[in-house]
Amino acid sequence: MKKPRAVDPAAAKKAILDYCLKKGSLAAGIADIAAIERIAPAGHRPKDLMPRVKSVISLGVGGQTQGAWSVPSKALGYFGSTETRAYKIAYGLAFMIEQKFGFRSIYCPPDMDPDGGPRVPLQSLKLHAELAGIGARSLAGDILLHPEFGYMYFASVFTELELEPDKPMAENPCPAPSCVAMYRSIKRTPCMKFCPVQCLDGEVGEDGKQKVMRYDMAACSEMSQQYETVPTRIVDAIRAETEAEREDALFDPDNKMLWYKVSAGSGGWFAQCFECMRACPIATKAPLADPLLRGEALRAAAEKKAAE
Ligand code: SF4
Ligand code: SF4
User: What's the average pLDDT block by block, 10 residues per block, for the chain (308 residues)?
Assistant: First the structure.
């Protein structure tokens, strides 16, 4: 193999993070690879996927528009997730690093490990983002939150180019002060209170910080219509004892929606129900949480500059 090109790591890191922001990320950072190797379980460490990996780059894109929070769950379930935008940027970044710096790179697959089943990802993009300092674990099932950008969707790139790691966020924005106040009064925070299947639970300590977080993933998955839904309907149809029951299993209006989503490829087959994030003050009211707020901030900054 050819000798790798000499690269200024600080300049390379700047070019890489600038690329992420220019392409639409709200935040990007480098995760400490030694920490990921220590924390992630065997088989799910970066070196298990790419043996010579030296750096893990994590980037986050914003959630939906502010208007999205005004629609009911049945609509938000179709378009609430914006993760494919993050994947697109990461995919391009891997190409950019190879071409510009000459080091092997990959778009880290956000997908499930075929050896581990449908609940075990190949890699934890959440761990990468947390260690890269672009999100902190919340009481809403560990969804990462950012004090400026609210909740984001994440993607990662692995590269053999060595880059200086960033640090995790020093402060966790969750629970927000209003959530602590609600917890003191009813022993629940907004995400816990408004989860339709009550799959979130936890405790806020005397110091106003997270003490315990409990998340019933199975209940959330059922609500969010996950991988098992379609096979379950098919099994129901196979096991039906009468023609009428079989028709019900396949053509019941709720079940017909599944065939619609599969055949129309709407991207809404899997989705969270979003009610925990709809109730979350960080997700909905962080200063740069949505395009409306970001536009206002940009205009205010431009006006301030013009007045100077
Ligand atoms: S996505 Fe829905 S079901 Fe899952 S934790 Fe949030 S509110 Fe509860
Ligand atoms: S509503 Fe948001 S900020 Fe408040 S406790 Fe839940 S996740 Fe944390």
Answer: 78 98 98 98 97 98 94 84 93 98 96 86 97 98 97 97 98 98 98 95 97 92 70 88 91 80 62 88 97 96 93
Give the predicted TM-score (pTM) of the model.
0.90
Tell me how far apart the alpha carbons of residues 201 and 188 are, in angstroms, rounded to a whole number: 8
Which amino acid appears at position 151 of this protein?
Y
Helix axes 253-264, 229-239, angle to 10 degrees: 130
> Is the CB of residue 225 below 6 angstroms from any atom belonging to ligand 1?
no
Q: Is residue 286 lining ligand 2, measured as CB closer than 6 Å?
A: no
pLDDT of residue 53: 98
Please state, in angstroms and rounded to a whole number, the distance separating the CA atoms of residues 173 and 136.
7
Is the Cβ–Cβ distance between 180 and 208 less than 8 Å?
A: yes
Q: Ligand 2 centroid vs 205 CA: distance in angstroms? A: 14
What six digits make up the tokens of 111?
A: 């997908």
Q: What's the rounded Cα separation, in Å, for the pair 128 and 110?
A: 12
